Amino acid sequence: MKPQLILLGAPGSGKGTQANMLITEYGYSHVSTGDLLRSEVSRKTDLGIRISEIMSSGKLVDDKTVLEVLASNCDLSISSYIFDGYPRNFEQAVALDEEIVKNHKAVAVYFDADLDNISERLIARRTCSKCGEIYNLITKIPSDEKLCDKCNGELTHRKDDTAEVVKQRMQIFKDSITPILQHYEDKGILKRVDATRPLDEVAKSLIDVINL
Ligand code: AP5
């Protein structure tokens, strides 16, 4: 079985984009806590109503809720997963080891990037509401600004991709990433890629470091 992959990195560092590549090319299953939580918000479930404001402001949802959502959406006995957006703090990293990944082989990859440069990526991001394809109005331009090239679905701009909220998300990231990286360094499973390079070059180094 392929290793479980834990993608770490700032908002906009390219985790979702490269996860889509790994799903298509290597048959990984993908679990994004951000996508799962956004789905709760758009379906207006009880949970969605409770977390809507937290997510729009760029703050983190509480650990217990996120772990429950994550655990009920992955089954490592049937597939190798990409964990995207989880863990976001040291406690979540420990919970991922103990409650989900357990005895499976895992690799954590840090998407290293200068935070000032990648903030701009988020303002220009557009995501297909139907198939989840990720575009960028500067670096990965769709033929039509409003429609997905792949499935013709509507392209949307995330509520938390505004300059003010991005600033808040980056600050939370800066405040929490060091102990997470240390945790995986101590376990000997941390790899790094330079996420500032063009998409295809990041993809190539990702495949190299995971050894696929
Ligand atoms: P989440 O959805 O996880 O957002 P994020 O971590 O902030 O990450 P993003 O999805 O913004 O960035 P990405 O790295 O995937 O970048 P992408 O590939 O799209 O979380 C959202 C919210 O949910 C949180 O704020 C919180 O409220 C809640 N939440 C989620 N998980 C939680 C948890 N575990 N605990 C508590 N709360 C949680 O790329 C971005 C753009 O850049 C795209 O336009 C893309 O085309 C472009 N791009 C990508 N790579 C490149 C490149 N190499 N060169 C040029 N452009 C590029």
Provide an overview of this structure.
- With 212 residues, the chain is α/β, with parallel strands linked by helices.
- Helix content is 47%, strand content 17%.
- The chain is built from eight helices and eight strands.
- The chain has helices at residues 15-26, 33-42, 46-56, 63-71, 90-101, 115-123, 163-187, 199-210, and strands spanning 4-9, 29-32, 81-84, 106-112, 125-128, 134-136, 155-156, 190-194.
- The strands form two sheets. A five-stranded parallel β-sheet has the order 2-3-1-4-8, sandwiched between helices. The protein has a three-stranded antiparallel β-sheet with strand order 6-5-7.
- A hairpin with a 5-residue loop joins strand 5 (125-128) and strand 6.
- Helix 6 crosses helix 7.
- It is globular, with a radius of gyration of 16 Å.
- The N and C termini lie close together (11 Å).
- 31% of the residues are buried.
- Bound molecules: BIS(adenosine)-5'-pentaphosphate.
- Residues 9, 11-17, 33-34, 37, 54-55, 58-61, 66, 85-86, 88, 92, 121-122, 125, 134-136, 139-140, 160, 169, 195, 198-199, 202 line the site of BIS(adenosine)-5'-pentaphosphate (AP5).
- The site of BIS(adenosine)-5'-pentaphosphate has 36 residues, from helix 1, helix 2, helix 3, helix 6 and strand 6.
